Amino acid sequence: MQWSWKRIPAEYLVTNVKIYQGAKISRRLGFLHVKKGRIEQVGVGAPSREGLPVLDGRGMVCAPGLIDLHVHFREPGQEEKETIASGSLAAACGGFTSVVSMPNTEPAIDHSGMVKYVVDRGKEAGLCRVFPTGAISKGRQGEQMCEFGDMVAAGAVGFTDDGSPVANGALMANALKFARMLGVPIISHAEDLSIVGNGVMHGGYWSARLGLAGMARAGEDAATFREIELARATGGHLHVAHVSTRGAVAMIRRAKEEGVHVTAEATPHHFSLDHSRCRDYSPLFKMNPPLREPEDIEAVAEGLTDGALDCIATDHAPHTATQKEYQFDQAPFGVLGLETAFAVGVTYLVKNKVMDLGRLIGLMSERPAGVLGLPYGRLEEGAVADFTLLDPDHTWTVSVDHLQSRSRNSSYLGEELTGKAGATFLRGRLTWHDEDVIGAE
Ligand SMILES: [Zn+2]
């Protein structure tokens, strides 16, 4: 039987690929043997089995399916921006096979029925695993805590009021305690609104020059400090979302050394772009936390390198074109991330020699799986065959044609990036194929 992109067989070999294993990429070419959705065998050299359909990987990197701990799929309530199905396709296009969705939909995911809704819609789309988080507080109002137990039973993998911080420290402490009993993390959008006020971009030289209200670093730093102290006091697992300041990276690094159960993520835009990008008042550079200063970018990259930060997460936040055409100060916060994350990592971290490709892929697969204890993110015998074929040398200029999201608000439109997923497989089944990266046979 011949290999066919149109009809993927139940058993096949992927050959001539470099294999990701434990934050390293094999120098020698190897193979992956997939049988009925599982990895039958993986290794360097030639496969022992013959006579199976063969997909020639042409020297590309065979990596575990990428995992994103932070996406906004907008369904229910804002389907004009994104649906669980369109977001799942954007994920597959970026090489992802698992995503963790945020609960700030309309209405919010704040009870087990809503959690189940997201799980079911994700399965229906069938393009990547969608793991929902639940809100910490009812309606994300910051007052009454949700029923965590019911929501975990329905499939919630953590809790967060993301989009907004939990202003009430006692509520946060309680949430950490309850989540600890259930073995799941509390994901913190660490922001002190009394400090940040009505800021729309990072508070510094450019906000002053552009006449826009600034968001001081202290807003993120103060909130991160509080969260760490509450995690220390309760023993709960704190996961800090979208870390963007030098100070927050340093605090998280120290807390880990002191044994606090804290993990953290950073977004591609926070290790690649600085606040000067706001100079033309383009809302494509408006997000929360905001693009900060070169020293923050350096600290975030360093944190990803030395382990202070655990993983890369996109904070994929679709908004309609009309909303992103508002004036900078009126436009909503947030940008897309799934389709460009790997390329931004290769372009800004690997090509700049901040880290090697193996570490980058680890930060986008094995490491985020570890944060949540998900049984994915590794290529090993017996594991589910979630994998992606990545070309780390493929150069492309980002255009709307490359975006599978319903929205178009990418910060990288028009920019030349290097690195792209050629094909993505979920449980051995093809979810994405880019013929420009790996041609048709
Ligand atoms: Zn957030």
Short description, anyone?
Helix content is 29%, strand content 21%. The protein is of the alpha/beta class and 441 residues long. The longest helix is centred in the middle third of the chain and has 18 residues, at 217-234.
SSE layout and pairings?
Elements: E1 11-21, E2 24-25, E3 30-35, E4 38-44, E5 54-56, E6 61-64, E7 66-71, H1 84-93, E8 96-101, H2 112-125, E9 129-132, H3 148-154, H4 169-182, E10 186-188, H5 193-196, E11 201-202, H6 205-210, E12 214-215, H7 217-234, E13 238-240, H8 246-257, E14 262-266, H9 294-306, E15 311-312, H10 321-324, H11 341-350, H12 357-363, H13 366-372, E16 387-397, E17 416-426, E18 429-433
Parallel strand pairs: 1-5, 1-6, 7-8, 8-9, 10-13, 11-12, 13-14, 14-15
Antiparallel strand pairs: 1-2, 1-3, 3-4, 6-16, 16-17, 17-18
Helix pairs in contact: 1-2, 2-3, 4-7, 7-8, 8-9
The chain binds zinc ion.
Explained architecture:
By secondary structure, the chain is α/β, with parallel strands linked by helices. It has a domain at 65-372: Alpha-Beta Barrel (TIM Barrel). 29% of the residues lie in helices and 21% in strands. The chain is built from 13 helices and 18 strands. The strands form four sheets. Strands 1, 2, 3, 4, 5, 6, 16, 17 and 18 form a nine-stranded mixed beta sheet that branches. Strands 10-13-14-15 form a four-stranded parallel beta sheet. The chain has a three-stranded parallel beta sheet with strand order 7-8-9, sandwiched between helices. β11 (201-202), α6 (205-210) and β12 (214-215) form a beta-alpha-beta unit. The protein is globular, with a radius of gyration of 21 Å. The model has no long low-confidence stretch (mean pLDDT 97). It binds zinc ion. Residues 162-163, 189, 241-242 line the site of zinc ion.
